[in-house]
Each structure stands twice: as C-alpha cells, then as structure tokens.
Amino acid sequence: MTDGVLAGYRTLVTGASSGIGQGTAVAFGAAGARVAVDYRSQPDDAEETVRRIEAAGGEAFAVRADVSDPEAVSAMVEEVCDRFGGIDVLVANAGLQRDAPALEMSVEDWRTVLDVNLTGQFLCAQAAARRMVQQGPGAGPARSAGSIIAMSSVHDAIPWAGHVNYAASKGGVDMLMRTLAQELGPRGVRVNAISPGAIKTPINEDAWSTPEAERELLRLIPYGRVGVVEDVAAAAVWLASDAADYVTGTTLYVDGGMTTYPSFRDGG
Ligand code: BGC
Question: What's the CA-to-centroid distance between 10 and ligand 1, angstroms?
C-alpha cells in the first residue's frame, strides 16, 4: 500500500491483539503504515489483527512482548527496526485493569497495573525514542524524528472509585507524556496522549453489554452514544501524521464529553 496519510510509516502498536490497540493497528494499516502488532498472551488474536491489515492491502507482523519487561521491550523494538529499517510511530497502548475497592486492593493488583500501564509505557517510549533520536527529523516518511502516542484514559482526569490503581497509572501517564514531550522536543520527537472515554471493548464489557448497563453508562456521556474503537483509531491516525506535526505535549480526549462533568447538567 502506497497511499494514505501514513504511507510508509514504520509503526508499532502495543496491546494490538484486541480492543483499541487492534482498531488502531488496523486503521494504521489502512492509512498506509507498516504495522508491528504487539501482543502478550493472545497470539491468535494478534494474527487476526495482522490478517485484517493484510486483507486491506497493508503490511503487518505480530511480535510478542510483555511491555513491563525491559529486555522483552528492547528485543521487540530491535525486531521492529530490523524488519522495517527504523521506527516512526509508537502507540503505547497495552494496558489492563485489576479492580478492587481501595481498602481491599492487594499490593499485587496495585503493582500489576502500575507495571503494565505506566512502567510499560515508559519502557516502550524509551526504547522507541532512542531509535527515533538516532534517526533524526525527516530521515523517514514523517517530518519529525518520530512520534509517540500514549494511550491514556479519561481517568487521567476523572477520579475513579474502585479503580485506584488504574486511575493512578493514567494520572502518571499524563506526566510521563508531558515530561517526555518537553525533553524530546529538541530532538525532533513528538509525544502526545489520547484519553478515550467509554469505548466498547472487552475491558469494559460489563458497562455496556446489557441494555440496563448501557443506559446507566450513557448518563455519563453527553453526546449520547458509547464510543467504538474506530473513534479512537481515527484520532491516533491524525496524531501520528504530519497533519499534527506541530502538536506535542497534549492530550486529545475522545470521550463523547465524559470529561465535562455531565452530572452537573441538572444541578450544582
Ligand atoms: C476504562 C473503561 C471505562 C472508561 C470510562 C477506560 O479507561 O478502561 O473500563 O469504561 O475508561 O470510564
């Protein structure tokens, strides 16, 4: 595939075997990018992502790495650079939830979520940015030396009872992203975040899979519908492209208005 806003971009999407990561990888392929599809535990689902990209005429391969493991992350970025000759875009998307009331949360569940959602994003960004800085601006298809998109959440801003580990990890992603943007801007690397609201994926199936649950959820979404992965993927394609070349250090909320305090519609 040679046309599209990401034509020839060498990209890596972590956690691309399902949900937002899978949707983003497919959209990248459709926009002309070459896509490395990271997964940790679902090789068949990662292969399905690859198949969908190839079926649309794109190029992709699956690569296994646990993003919280520094050696595995280095090896993954090496492999991407060996196969593609460099890396232009990282979408640090892999993430998980281990929910529990704060007073009952185990330290293991706290650590697992921080390890994957925050340390994992740092490790992937560090490994990718090292290569991007070596490449320098304009060496690849993009005007920048490379760009990093951290997949965050509205819970980088909205506190979330019963999910203190997850909210803390996403709050951390905000400062990780903004500090990296400040530090890496002079080296030509753009760093941004996308904060999705409620998007229909396996991670939050309980919140939308029955009509009653969906009705409750919609009370939190002024725009009146639950999001789909394509809503987030379109934002990622734009942020990765040269159309967003002057955009760094910012968070794009893709949330149907969830961050507008909708419970204040009738009060306050
Ligand atoms: C969480 C989902 C949740 C959404 C909105 C996301 O970051 O992973 O479970 O539905 O935020 O609350």
Answer: 29
Assigned domain for 23 exists: yes
Q: Which residues are catalytic?
A: 166
Q: Is residue 240 part of a domain?
A: yes
- The enclosing H or E element of 190 equals strand 189-196
% of residues, the chain, pLDDT over 90: 98
CA distances (Å), origin 244, targets 125, 136, 207, 221, 247:
19, 18, 33, 27, 5
pTM of the predicted model over 0.85: yes
CA nearest ligand 1 atom 10, residue: 198
What pLDDT, in 10s, does the model give residues 81-122? 999 999 999 999 999 999 999 999 999 999 999 999 999 999
Total domains in the chain come to 1
- Ligand 1: centre distance to CA 154 (Å): 7
